[in-house]
Amino acid sequence: MTITMYDLAGAEAERRFSPFCWRIKMALAHKGLAVETVPWRFTEKDKLPKPNAGRVPVIVDGDRVVHDSTAIADYLEEHYPDRPSLFGGASGRALTRFAQNWTETVLQTSLIRLVVLDIHRHCAPQDQDYFRRSREERLGATLEDVVRDREARLPAFRASLDALRRTVERQDFVSGTAPAYADYVVFGAFQWARAISDFNVLASGDPIGAWRGRMLDLFDGLARGAPAYGN
Amino acid sequence: MTITMYDLAGAEAERRFSPFCWRIKMALAHKGLAVETVPWRFTEKDKLPKPNAGRVPVIVDGDRVVHDSTAIADYLEEHYPDRPSLFGGASGRALTRFAQNWTETVLQTSLIRLVVLDIHRHCAPQDQDYFRRSREERLGATLEDVVRDREARLPAFRASLDALRRTVERQDFVSGTAPAYADYVVFGAFQWARAISDFNVLASGDPIGAWRGRMLDLFDGLARGAPAYGN
Predict the structure, then answer these.
(1) pLDDT of residue B231
(2) Scanning every residue of chain A, which has its alpha carbon at the shortest distance from the alpha carbon of B166?
(3) Cystine design at B39: which of A18, A29, B9, B45 (Cβ 3.0–4.6 Å)?
């Protein structure tokens, strides 16, 4: 049975840029599960199936509704145990959490300060006011001020990725010889950026770029084929 | 048969402070393997069994000599497969590398800038010139200058630990419900600091401090019983 997933969309319905949704689209492909996505906008809180927390992803699998990317990944692992594992066991799951916490506290918090104005530019018209207001409040500055010195912040941003860089220099994927959920979590952040911004967050020749290329190739180019910039 | 391990010692032979050696002492205890440590000083390059890279840990297990903490952990996992696993499988091992790379590029590189003068103070007299010269060259400043503003750098240092903090807030250990090598790698850095410095690198009430307490309790208080400051 096809799973339905509510997926954040921009002004163009096919431009999907939520890092959390990308985690789950990659995880569904990893499990070999068919999915039909429903484009959803920030302000369409009442269009989500219940229960939800007003955010995506939300999936509907038969009569089950599951929300929150971490809960969805756990649900998929538990309910489809015969499909390829997302974690590789209990230790793998626990250590994936560390990679996820790094992604959320280091990678995503820096990336948003590089591309937040580009996100605004790609938002559906009905979302733009909401997006600007909520993000300006969270970031404590206008979107224009947040990104104004982004070129100057690039070297520090790139240096902050050393742990990831060293890892994918020495093994093909964060999860080892094959990709798994930790890779999808980290990749979701980069796919988010490239879906809505032509700003080159990585220097050319960065080993992280080579790993991102391997991720873009997965599942017959699932992410590579999605509307995004070339970076 | 008892394994012999060359272990970095200070002016007091029992003060053992190498973060890399602590990883392996914890890993040996995890595997339930008996170890006899040999105190070793930075300048005793010619006292190490061959092959070596002029650094510790080096272990001697029967007729095998293994050096480099990562190689030793892999050796122990491979040669003692019936003992508790250090990684929990291939994914766990790969993801442990990410935690290790984070420890080496974020945690240890910041910690040394907080406690390097305290290390010098605890070095054996014959090591002090070597230590000062090599570290001042690496850090690009006198040891005194490196630590001069350490109080001012504490908030940024503590903030840089958010990924670890969030992880051990939500699960007992980095590796999940039980400790494994990823925990020993991260812990090695904190044990290094507390072995040679009374500087409180963590704020009181930090969840990382609670996790460190759980680590200090392991293996009948192996690390808690070693010469160190109370922090």
Answers:
(1) 66
(2) A101
(3) B9
Residue A190 CA to residue A209 CA, distance in Å, equals 10
Nearest-CB residue to A175 (from B87, B95, B180): B95
B91·A176 Cβ contact <8 A: yes
The answer to whether the beta carbons of residues B222 and B27 sit under 8 Å apart is no
A174 CB near a chain B CB, below 8 Å? yes
Confidence of residue B1 (pLDDT cuts 50, 70, 90): confident
Token pair listed for A161:
């990725």
pLDDT one-digit tens code per residue, A117-172: 999 999 999 999 999 999 999 999 999 999 999 999 999 999 999 999 999 999 99
Contact B106 A162 (CB under 8 A): yes
3-state DSSP assignment of residue B230? coil
Q: Check if the beta carbon of residue A172 is closer than 8 Å to that of residue A210.
A: no
Distance CA A31, CA A47 (A): 27
**A45 contact partners, CB below 8 Å, separation of at least 6:** A54
Q: Is A207 on the interface with B (CB under 8 A)?
A: no
Asked if A94 and B175 come within 8 Å (Cβ–Cβ), the reply is yes
Per-residue confidence (pLDDT) for residue A1, from 0 to 100: 81
